[in-house]
Amino acid sequence: MSDTEGPTRTRLLRLLRDRGALSRAELADRLQVPRPRLLTDLDGLLATGLIQEAGPAASRGGRRSTLVELNPTLRFAAVDLGASSIDVEITDGRLEPVAAATMVSDIRSGPKEILHQVNEMLGKFHTEGAFERLAAVGIGVPGPVSFRDGVPVSPPIMPGWDRYPVRDLIAREHGCPVVVDNDVNIMSIGERYGGVADSVDNLLFVKIGTGIGCGIYLNGEVYRGTDGSAGDIGHIQVDSHGPVCSCGNVGCLEALFGGAALARDALAAAKAGTSPSLAERLSANRTVTAKDVADGAAEGDVTCIRLIRDGGRRVGGVLAGLVSFINPSMIVIGGGLAGLGHILLAEIRSVVYRRSLPLATGNLPVVLSELGTRAGVVGAAVLASEIAYGQPS
């Protein structure tokens, strides 16, 4: 959103978040609002404690204006719930991290257990002095979400979470606004705010992890669909004779190349002896993981390279259809399996460029996430700041 769109209060706070301390004169210029109206809004925000005066600005030739900045004690909590981990960051008003922690966790243990762990992590941050009180909390979950209601909706890999009141319970616990979104949406928001997709208005962010999903930016706004399930590409069928997926259907993309699927196929290759690298790792560790596949591919193991290329080909086939349909200006690949690196990226690129119309791919970068594992918490922090400022994305 540009400096001249949206309510003045929201635009003012967003401007201070993104640009730092500014003078009253600079704010008036950038926001293009009458000075009396700006001063009224500033007085109101000063009274709330969201902003404060920060001394005189540099002279512009006349009487020096006063700098205004976000209150340095302002704090947001950003929570990224994954299938097997919880990432939490506390940020200041400018979304700079103040404290961070990661906990191994299983989303299938249910909402009560997971949210208890989240509250314990936030409580520890409070005890350690990372914040006195929270202005807002942003949360991403690995499944479809009703953004309006703040609840997961029939999430395939989250038993017990359907319609669970995540937003309301966290808001009650911490006494502040809370926003809940699908994890890939918050990753796309994070990458667009502070990563390789900075200010790209038409964007596909593809998360390839335990599940596979796609965050969609159209005309600078996240597109969530009518019921919050837009971008759930992991459940597009790519093989009518494929394995049964967690959603109950057959041959979904996720069932063929999500994290669990890759581990399954890697284990089969190790047991069959078709991959010396994976067989060695299975013997040493009694299990194999996606990282073992990546390491084996780096060592030149033919089976590991084939597993990655097969997955990239399937993802690329789905994305080629989306490129023809949406015509994005960038595709970003993130999530845990993005760590498979350039073999995966090269295969995805090859299929997308080969199977989409030249007009749609002539100027289409397909790149790896710049923020990596932080994309989710960065996006959750952005959403928290937006709801605190009165304008959720």
Description:
- With 393 residues, the protein is of the alpha/beta class.
- It has 14 helices and 15 strands.
- The longest helix is centred in the last third of the chain and has 25 residues, at 302-326.
Largest sheet: 5 strands, mixed
- Proper CATH architecture of the largest domain: 2-Layer Sandwich
Q: Please give the domain count.
A: 3
- Enumerate the spans where pLDDT stays under 50 for 5 or more consecutive residues: 1-6
- How large, in whole angstroms, is the Cα Rg? 23 Å
On the 0 to 100 scale, the average pLDDT is 92
Distance between the terminal alpha carbons, to the nearest Å?
Answer: 10 Å
Which band does the percent of strand residues land in? 15-25%
Name the CATH class of the largest domain.
Answer: Alpha Beta
InterPro entries: ATPase_NBD (IPR043129), ROK (IPR000600), ROK_cs (IPR049874), WH-like_DNA-bd_sf (IPR036388), WH_DNA-bd_sf (IPR036390)
Keywords: Kinase, Membrane, Transferase, Transmembrane, Transmembrane helix
GO molecular function: kinase activity
Family: Belongs to the ROK (NagC/XylR) family.
